[in-house]
Amino acid sequence: MQKFVMGLLGLTFYLSPVNADELFIGLDADLSAVSAEGGIAIQRGAELAIDEINQQGGLLGKSLKLISKDHRGNPARGKRNIEQFAKINNLLAVLGGIHTPVAMTELPVIHKHKVIYLAPWAAGTPIVDNGYSPNYVFRVSLRDQDAAIVLLKHAKQHKLTQVALMLEHTSWGRSNKLSLEQAARALDIHITHIEWFNWRDSELHNKVANALATQPQAMILVSNAPEGAEIVKAMHRLPKSMHKPIISHWGITSGHFVESVGLEILRQADIRVIQTFSFFNAHNQQLAKQVLQQYNQKYQTNYTAHAIPSAVGVAHAYDLVHLLATAVKQAQSTDRAVIRDALEKLPEYHGLVKNYQRAFTPTRHDALTPEDYRMLTFDMLGNLTNIPSSVHAAKLIE
């Protein structure tokens, strides 16, 4: 019954008449399955930016509206969503979700229909480096190739030069394997073992034990929240002498990781996770405070700067929508090919994540660089916070 209802919700707009006085941005993300927290964060960041744009008169005399479709982490469903979005008049662009495998499957359809795809989370290097010309993908997010360098430089800074890799068996995991192996060679870090696991794999005890039996000094984790939580709990069940620091990609922050692990176990674990943004140490504190206030007011929440769920999804989507709006104004057109070209020639934009001198160029469709990455950890309440006595990721790449 739930799937039937979600299907009807996904078709609601598609079956409704299009208002000629509106422009549209699509959202294609997991909004109801295991990574819904990340998808909802992206949705809310986009909605907050759209509210601001509409309050200032909209775009080209038209109001802007978000249309959300739930792919639930399923690549085939995501591909179908893009096909449906492409049929909507006045569609400016589509925001993606957290899943690299979904985005990779969608690439041919995106470029067939010349749909501008804005990536606010999925970090797979080939999503942007996709071989298409012209390239319709633009990203404000991590890039796996760069994230690998920051993750392993963090390890080396803490004298953790023997590491085991725990990777999800998807295109995202494979992308990270290549990047981590390349970074390890450059940094003289030894990979003691590579262990693969599948989505929804709840029997991870033996895999974790196998990885730790190779005597690494740390574990590098590439996982989303459900499997990441199982890996942390599996390590906790092993003898304490086998417990190692976990240096994690950010997929674990896209779902109910803290609730699944439990605070008692989380407080005993040493977990560091890569991020690009946090409301509590944003570069523009005034804007961060303003957006957090708008968030709490709109969604009737009372989050502190430390507690807002999947903050990177909110911030990246917020900035991407404003960057898109700037491109539309500059192009003075709703033609996606013209908007695509304008995105490569944007003026400076002071965003939530950073000040973008020039967000994108014809040869660079990733707006963030390793200097924008940082390593955080979990506090006693399960919120992300600074690592004591740590340095910003920018210093790790000097």
**Inertia-based shape:** globular
CATH architecture call of the largest domain: 3-Layer(aba) Sandwich
Please write the CATH class name of the largest domain: Alpha Beta
Give the low-pLDDT segments: 1-17, 390-398
End-to-end C-alpha gap? 54 Å
| Overall pLDDT confidence | 93
Run of helices and strands: HEHEHEHEHEHEHEHEHEHHEHHHEEEEH
Residue share in helices? Answer: 40-55%
Structural class: alpha/beta
* Total number of distinct structural domains: 2
Order of the strands making up the biggest sheet? 7-6-8-9-10-13-14
Question: What's the gyration radius in Å?
Answer: 21 Å
Continuous helix count: 15
The name CATH uses for the topology of the largest domain is Rossmann fold
Question: Main sheet?
Answer: 7 strands, mixed
User: Superfamily at the CATH H level of the largest domain?
Assistant: Response regulator
InterPro entries: BCAA_transport, Leu-bd, Peripla_BP_I
Domain Leucine-binding protein: 24-358
Keywords: Receptor, Signal
Protein name: Extracellular ligand-binding receptor
